[in-house]
Automatic annotation (TrEMBL):
Domain of life: Bacteria
Annotated ranges, domain Amine oxidase: 48-439
Entry coiled-coil feature ranges: none
Taxonomic path: Bacteria, Pseudomonadati, Pseudomonadota, Betaproteobacteria, Burkholderiales
Provenance organism: Comamonas endophytica
Family affiliation: Belongs to the flavin monoamine oxidase family.
Gene3D superfamilies: FAD/NAD(P)-binding domain
Official protein name in the record: FAD-dependent oxidoreductase
Pfam families in UniProt: Amino_oxidase
Classification via SUPFAM superfamilies: FAD/NAD(P)-binding domain
Amino acid sequence: MSHLLLGGEVDAPAAVAPAPAELSQPQPALAADDTTAHCAIAIIGGGVAGLHTALRLAERFGPRLCLFEQDACLGGRVSDIPASDEQAAGPFVQLGARRIMEGQSVLTQLAEELGIPLQKPEMLEELGFTRGMYATNNDEFIRVFPGLDVDRSRGGYEIQLYEKLLRGPERRHVDDYPNLRAYAEKVIGAEGCAFLHGTYRFRADHEYDLSAKAYLDYLDEENDAGAICPSGHCQSLYPVGGMSAYTRGMEQRVRDLGVQLHLGEAVQSIDKSPAGYLIKTPRRAITASTLVIALPPVALGQVQGGIAESIRAQAEFQALVGVRVTTITQWYREPWWRGIVTANGRHVWRAWTTGHCINSVEIPLEEYASTQNAIRVVYNDQTDCADLWARLAQGPLEALEREVAIGLNHLFADNGVTRPVHIGTPSRTVFREWPDAWYYLRSGNHFSNRDIFRWAVQPLPGEDVALVSDGYNPQRSGWADAAYKSSIHYLNQRFGMGLPGLERRA
């Protein structure tokens, strides 16, 4: 029977919430010899940035290192769930981050360290729809963008537009523009902006009020990592075991080294104390000499206390803007998507559309995921569509699944480009929303991405407090990569570890 999971939380064991009386009463003092009474280092947040920081510090600090995570499991936005209720140990289906790029050396090297195989499928074809037209090559859309200012003899129109944005003479004057949109319209024109918005699967880049300079700097790093390329045909690598294979590997090593992991225990407040920093949860109060806050900005906004408030008051913190993202994953008894092939028999691995709020569909081709009969049918960062999916997720499941089916039929049932397919009835549907899947810098501030990156190592002068998360690394490449780089930067600056991976920042 089909069912809906809100937030992907139902499949994970729920943390036991304290009884109301327990919350309202003072917590008993911990014994002086109890290592939870004082931690040398406290890490708040068990996403990949916090967990990676714990991994690298574990050999030095062992049980004197404490990590607090509000959820019952680690990983944060690297959110995988078992393929079925009967397979708790896997295989896993990814609801958030799905892959890494071949140029992301931090993640390829960590996979080798943790013994995680990476599969490298051929990406094959990509199907798109915009302005009433279907095509498997973005250049073909020139027919519905007749005013596009590109060299038609060269082809690669998407890349031509990005080249103008990144390498054109106007970039020297980027600080003169109030936001990304104004700069882009000047350089590539309104039709060029419409082309990138219409033929690129991410919409938020062109919808949020972003700093032009910071965004272009971010694109430079994306290009270096191989994450931006014509029609998305870059080489992706998929970890066997899903992206949570990284989480499980790091968690096991951290546990083996004695680090204290407090799962299902949200930090409510952070204050100064004579012993360093006072951290309160619903269950306990502890102190720590060093504090690593591995919470993204939106989560830090929920923490009380003087330290959290002081960080939020910083201009750097206020410059950050999170991008809201929705994913919907569905399981089917038969993998109908294997029939989506072009006239010459090439399979489609991704499809996108401006004609429906499913926005982007990703079809697993890697061996590990392709046999699980699960497909990501919605990948959306368009704000109005996020509102639609959130509203449907609150109502009857049938209404949400009916809307997904409309979008899938619009893309695949009879588009005149790929062979028609019959889309079946899903046996399971999982809805997931992130209010801040990644971060940019908003317009109107004078900070660069690197300014934020450096600030996060010590956001409060004189305090042994750091921020590690992809939220504080807008100069990112990919979801997970930015979080690891944030952790590496802190570890290198604070502990002199000399970890590789930040060479592009020289």
